[in-house]
């Protein structure tokens, strides 16, 4: 068995869904795309400290590179707790970059194996993972910008592509940089995107994406995005959930994820709204760490917005409590918005009481909420 077959065989034996190889020449198509997109959309991934344009020409950064191995990790082997689905993106729920588990060990074992073959191995987070996987022939693109397994996972998109730079020249696989969408699907993902972030097949404005707005932005969420963001509090899977290419995987009876199910109550919306800093740092942050440890208020604000969109007036009480007690104005401001969205006499009373003690942003939100209630 040659080295390529040995590596692929080991990856499959360890539980990766697929493995492919590509060369070290720049990912030209990716470079052209990223350079054609407006800086106001994509400037944040081309900074001094993190730059995907630099990653797309990884051999300039790593002159020892001779080939790229790309692995596929399936993050949807087990079912997700129903109380977290639709609120927290699936990939984050099983992210093991902080809380280490089987998936982390699997990658460690693969890297150990490669080193055991005398290879130099490096993971560089700037290397565009999806395009690498497509050039390595193991995925095809969807119009929702996600990639779908070509040979495994019933061709679903619930995967992470992991590119590993190697110092051995290995024959590249046939690229599959192409759309794999059936012609009969009339852009269901674009139609379903709640914020209009998907604006054209294969084009997405991250600044309008729920995922970006749920964790990367500062300040109170703009009014125009609050309703479209619905009850997502961290990430969004909508354009993958509606995709017919994912239905064969999602229609399976998958085993429960016991440890995750046990953690699910930590992520209930009223719990998130009212959580202490300890709860946030110990129970929430280790799973979903794009929001800093010091910024639990971003989560509380997202939970307030989601409770407003949930439409259940039982949540007037917790929102009223946070409007009165939260030390953070973005949380109080969003509670005011959520109360206005829930409506009803109890919510109105709470808002009118709040109006007498608040000023600035929160007062403005209360006024807007009362106006909206009529
Ligand atoms: S993740 Fe959600 S908001 Fe972002 S493009 Fe997909 S459907 Fe739209
Ligand atoms: S929903 Fe339709 S157009 Fe969008 S990625 Fe899936 S198959 Fe392609």
Question: Would you write up a description of this structure?
Answer:
With 374 residues, the protein is an alpha+beta fold. It has 21 helices and eight strands. Helix 18 runs parallel beside helix 20 (345-357) and helix 19 (329-342) packs antiparallel against helix 20 (345-357). The protein is elongated. The N and C termini lie far apart (74 Å). One iron/sulfur cluster binds next to helix 10 and helix 12.
Annotation keywords:
374 residues; alpha+beta; Leucine-rich Repeat Variant; 2 domains; 8 strands; 45% helix; binds iron/sulfur cluster
First-residue to last-residue Cα separation: 74 Å
Question: Looking at the structure, what is the overall shape?
Answer: elongated
Unreliably modeled segments: none
Proportion in helices = 40-55%
Number of domains: 2
Order of strands, widest sheet? 1-2-6-3
Cα Rg: 23 Å
Total helical segments: 21
Number of strands: 8
Beta-strand percentage range = 5-15%
Biggest sheet, in brief?
4 strands, antiparallel
- Ligands in the structure? iron/sulfur cluster
Computed structural class: alpha+beta
Instruction: Spell out the helices and strands N to C.
Output: HEHHHHEHHEHEEEHEEHHHHHHHHHHHH
């Amino acid at each position: 068995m040659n080295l390529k077959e040995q590596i692929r065989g080991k990856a499959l034996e360890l539980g990766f869904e697929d493995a492919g190889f590509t060369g070290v020449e720049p990912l030209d198509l990716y470079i052209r795309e990223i350079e054609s997109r407006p800086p106001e959309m994509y400037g944040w991934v081309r900074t001094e400290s993190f730059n995907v344009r630099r990653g797309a020409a990884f051999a300039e950064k790593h002159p020892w590179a001779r080939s790229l191995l790309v692995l596929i990790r399936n993050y949807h082997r087990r079912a997700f707790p129903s109380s977290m689905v639709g609120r927290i993106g699936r990939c984050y729920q099983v992210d093991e970059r902080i809380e280490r588990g089987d998936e982390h060990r699997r990658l460690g074992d693969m890297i150990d194996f490669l080193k055991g073959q005398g290879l130099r191995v490096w993971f560089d987070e700037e290397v565009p993972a999806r395009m690498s996987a497509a050039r390595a022939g193991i995925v095809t693109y969807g119009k929702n910008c996600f990639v779908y397994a070509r040979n495994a996972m019933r061709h679903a998109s619930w995967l992470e592509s992991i590119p590993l730079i190697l110092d051995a020249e290995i024959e590249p696989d046939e690229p599959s940089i192409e759309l794999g969408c059936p012609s009969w699907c009339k852009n269901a993902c674009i139609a379903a995107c709640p914020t209009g972030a998907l604006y054209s097949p294969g084009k997405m404005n991250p600044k309008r994406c729920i995922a970006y707005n749920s964790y990367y932005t500062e300040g109170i969420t703009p009014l125009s995005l609050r309703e479209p963001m619905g009850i997502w509090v961290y990430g969004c899977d909508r354009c993958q959930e509606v995709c017919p290419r994912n239905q064969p995987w999602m229609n399976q009876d998958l085993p429960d994820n016991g440890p995750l199910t046990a953690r699910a109550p930590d992520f209930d919306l009223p719990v998130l709204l009212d959580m202490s800093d300890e709860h946030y740092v110990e129970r929430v942050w280790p799973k979903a760490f794009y929001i800093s440890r010091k910024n639990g208020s971003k989560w509380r604000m997202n939970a307030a917005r989601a409770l407003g969109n949930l439409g259940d007036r039982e949540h007037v009480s917790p929102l009223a409590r946070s409007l009165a007690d939260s030390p953070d104005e973005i949380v109080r401001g969003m509670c005011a918005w959520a109360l206005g969205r829930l409506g009803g006499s109890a919510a109105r009373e709470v808002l009118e009481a709040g109006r007498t003690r608040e000023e600035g942003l929160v007062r403005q939100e209360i006024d807007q909420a009362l106006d909206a209630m009529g």
